[in-house]
Amino acid sequence: MFTYKKENQLPIKSWIPEKDYYADGKMVEQVENLAQLPFAFHHISQMSDGHVGYGMPIGGVMAAKGVVVPNAVGVDIGCGMCAVRTSLTEIDTETIKKIFGGSKDYHGGIRSCIPVGFNHHSKRQDESLMPERPDWWADDFYTVQKEYQSALTQIGTLGGGNHFIEIQKGSDGHIWIMVHSGSRNLGFKVAKHYNEIAIKINEKYFSQVPKEWELAFL
Questions:
Q1: Lowest mean pLDDT across 62-76, 139-153, 156-170, 171-185
Q2: Does residue 111 sit in helix, strand or coil?
Q3: Are the C-beta atoms of residues 151 and 130 closer than 8 Å to each other?
Q4: Transmembrane helix: present as a keyword of the record (predicted)?
Q5: Is the distance from CB of 109 to CB of 100 less than 8 angstroms?
């Protein structure tokens, strides 16, 4: 980890090695934009998985005083992450190939049964698999309510990019299944909704934050 500070900016702590940090100029620009925000607190951190995001870099960490920045929360809000321990303690390569499928030798399996990226199920899935909804949720969660029926087609699907399904051997000796599903468009819609509100408010009250930084706040 190294730390640096420019004039009239908060300190920046980077967990990306210094020799690699400056290779991505756009990411560095986004980090340094954060360090100039009037509501940013104490310092800005950049984790080792850093790359360009919407306004705020992926892996960026910022404490904000008195405001919420929708793009800092990110379009991956509600991104699913889960690790499940199986009863297995061993699994052979051929079995793994069969589970994942998608090759000329193995048909079916994860690759052919689970929609990935922009794909989704053609029919709504079992609603009982969704989290229980409190009585008041429709009034307070407009975007989720609006997208709920579409979300039913996303149950059991997998995001593109850095999302994954893995079979792992745990330190406890058991075989684990780890899933990083993504928020399956719902997170994007929620973030977009509140970012658009933030942009209008910032324009109305002549925010100091440049619009091109994509860091409108509520």
A1: 139-153
A2: helix
A3: yes
A4: no
A5: yes
Rounded CA-CA distance 151/119 in Å is 12
Three-state secondary-structure class, residue 41: strand
Q: If phi over 0 gives left and psi between -120 and 50 gives alpha, with beta otherwise, what is residue 185?
A: left
Encoding tokens for residue 60?
């960026």
Q: Give the CA angle between residues 161, 214, 203 to the nearest 5°.
A: 150
Which of 212, 193, 186 has its CA nearest to residue 68? 193
Please tell me the total number of residues recorded for the chain in this structure: 218
DSSP state of 198: H
Q: What is the pLDDT of residues 56-109, one digit of tens each?
A: 998 999 999 999 999 998 877 888 899 999 999 999 988 888 888 866 666 678
User: What spatial distance separates the first Cα and last Cα of the chain, rounded to whole Å?
Assistant: 31
Among 98, 122, 101, CA closest to 111: 101
In the numeric block, the tokens 């309510």 are attached to: 145
Q: For 151-168, b where at least 16 C-beta lie within 10 A, e where not — what string?
A: bbbbbebbbeeebebebe
In this structure, what DSSP letter does residue 55 have? Answer: S
Tens-place pLDDT, residues 25-57: 999 999 999 999 999 999 999 999 899 998 999
| Nearest C-alpha neighbor of 151 from the set 141, 161, 140 | 141
